[in-house]
Amino acid sequence: MVSESQRRPTVRVSEMLAEIAIRYNYEELKAATRDWSKGRQLGSGSYGAVFKGEMEDGSEVAIKMIDLGALGAAGQTEDMAGFEEEVKNLSKFRHPNLVTLIGWGKHEQFRYLVYELMTGGDVYDRIQKSRRRDNPTPFIWYERISALLDAASGLSHMHNSKPKAFHRDIKAANILLDRP
Questions:
Q1: What integer best gives the mean pLDDT of the chain?
Q2: Which CATH homologous superfamily contains domain 12-117?
Q3: Residue 140: its pLDDT value, please?
Q4: From the candidates 35, 122, 169, 178, which is the catalytic residue?
């Protein structure tokens, strides 16, 4: 028999995993993207690019490269303490409609965020493909509504969590799909 004082505190697995974000070294990320190959680039923005990566265990990820120099040129600052705090906060979010942050890294003026890979593209591209006259790819109304409801559910989770988080750049091109 175990007395109340001898019992271990009950910790749910989801709580233990909530703040885990793997810190990757630069060489791992460089190898995963085949030396930042243009052929592995999924997209780019004013502060960096996103690459498809294949980790040592064979898992496929999306690696977001953030150029601190570009942030500084745009009048924004991102110190390392702020970056690590953001990683800690982002790694707490677990929701079926949010892309999971797996890990992070840093090298020189660059910071890296490693996310699960979403293979279905984004809502903007799906809409554009459905409008093509030569070879339309259907993106029917109930799929569109479903994608929007899922996005709203994920945003609601972020806004109602502690600490609160806000996306700040929600648009069709930033709503990713998990299947084509």
A1: 85
A2: Phosphorylase Kinase; domain 1 (3.30.200.20)
A3: 93
A4: 169
